[in-house]
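TICKET: design request
STATUS: open
ATTACHED STRUCTURE:
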């Protein structure tokens, strides 16, 4: 178990020959603040340090900057640290207000500086606070832990707020996603790992080189956990076969050409791979985001109406856009068109020196489309794996 304190200098990774400190997410801050406030409210004891286990298995030891009673409510604040990762929420104070309510339920909501969902297609319903699923779970579990230890079975109201969050959110994609009034409370692991593009690309190349030296000529590539999870659940390939390329599609193709590989197979969530149809080879949202424009244009090619195209353009997520396309009965032909354009972009990047195929999927709909050479490349990948065994 790795422990992280308020001072993160001792926990770091080395990238580009320098030490880069870890941080913790707004979700972890919210959960720790809620735990501290619940402790003060239910036991009368002001915590000097709050211990919080993150989903990644890191134990956080955070010192609250404020912890006080405000009438019948307990208030606690934790300052966010992104470590050495560039993050607009670095240094913000995340507050939790906890009070007793009738019943046994723990009610969670957002206050000042926490956004509200105004469009369908996100993790939360329209009108809900933009507190994602994992942080919600962390907050509830932290408060339940205090309540159980205190022997207080009653209901609790927890309100998370981030003063200044509304101004910060204007510099993010939240307004485009239909999240208004503040930031989102995020984090799937609870931990912020510092990013270094050069180091990430170097690590991708190293993994590919190792496989090439082992005699592999065709590699399976997945941008991240979604792609890896799909391979594990639906494909006849071991999870270890997939190289994670993160957002660096173009650099991954460049490495494959440089290493003399014969082909690569991309298996990716539609939210990432659809950008490639627009020639975008770095799929991070900070680099470019034209998902709806691409889906709308290919829907037009598939025969949709102008009204349908306009509806797609206003969707906050690709899953919402897929729903619109499905209702218009053009999802399948539009995805065929998208996949053809994706293959064209791959071939252009590799100068035709690689055999590149791809499969796009969504968690809700499964497979959405594949390039016309998918089976051929897929068989090469499978054959290479079986020969190793």
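STATUS: resolved
RESOLUTION: sequence designed for all positions
ATTACHED SEQUENCE:
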């Amino acid at each position: 178990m790795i422990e992280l304190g308020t001072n993160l200098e001792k926990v770091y990774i080395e990238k580009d020959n320098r030490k880069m400190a870890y941080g913790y997410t707004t979700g972890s801050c919210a959960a720790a603040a809620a735990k501290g406030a619940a402790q003060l409210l239910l036991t009368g004891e002001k915590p000097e340090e709050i211990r919080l286990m993150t989903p990644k298995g890191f134990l956080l030891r955070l010192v609250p900057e404020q912890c006080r009673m405000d009438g019948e409510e307990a208030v606690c604040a934790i300052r966010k640290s992104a470590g050495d990762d560039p993050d607009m929420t670095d240094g913000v104070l995340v507050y939790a207000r906890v009070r007793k309510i009738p019943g046994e339920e723990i009610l969670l909501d957002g206050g000042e500086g926490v956004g509200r969902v105004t469009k369908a297609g996100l993790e939360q319903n329209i009108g809900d606070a933009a507190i994602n699923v994992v942080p919600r779970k962390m907050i509830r579990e932290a408060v339940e832990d205090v309540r159980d230890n205190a022997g207080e079975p009653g209901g609790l109201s927890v309100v998370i707020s981030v003063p200044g969050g509304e101004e910060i959110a204007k510099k993010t994609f939240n307004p485009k996603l239909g999240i208004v009034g503040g930031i989102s409370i995020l984090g799937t692991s609870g931990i912020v790992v510092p990013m270094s593009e050069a180091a990430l690309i170097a690590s991708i190349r190293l993994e590919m080189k190792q496989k090439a030296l082992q005699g592999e000529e065709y590699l399976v590539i997945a941008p991240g956990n979604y792609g890896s999870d799909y391979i594990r659940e639906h494909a006849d390939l071991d999870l270890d076969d997939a190289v994670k390329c993160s957002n660096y599609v173009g650099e991954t193709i460049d490495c494959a050409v440089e290493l003399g590989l014969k082909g690569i197979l991309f298996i990716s969530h539609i939210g990432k791979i659809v950008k490639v149809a627009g020639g975008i080879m770095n799929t991070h949202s900070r680099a470019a985001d034209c998902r709806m424009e691409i889906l709308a244009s290919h829907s037009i090619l598939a025969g949709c109406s102008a009204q349908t195209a306009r509806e797609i353009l206003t969707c906050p997520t690709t899953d919402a856009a897929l729903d619109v396309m499905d209702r218009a009965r053009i999802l399948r032909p539009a995805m065929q068109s998208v996949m053809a354009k994706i293959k064209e972009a791959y071939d252009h990047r590799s100068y035709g020196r690689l055999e590149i195929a791809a499969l796009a999927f969504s968690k809700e709909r499964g497979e959405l489309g594949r390039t016309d050479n998918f089976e051929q490349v897929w068989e090469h990948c499978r054959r290479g794996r079986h020969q190793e065994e």
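CLOSING REMARK: Residues 197-388 form one domain. The chain has two domains: 2-192, 197-388.
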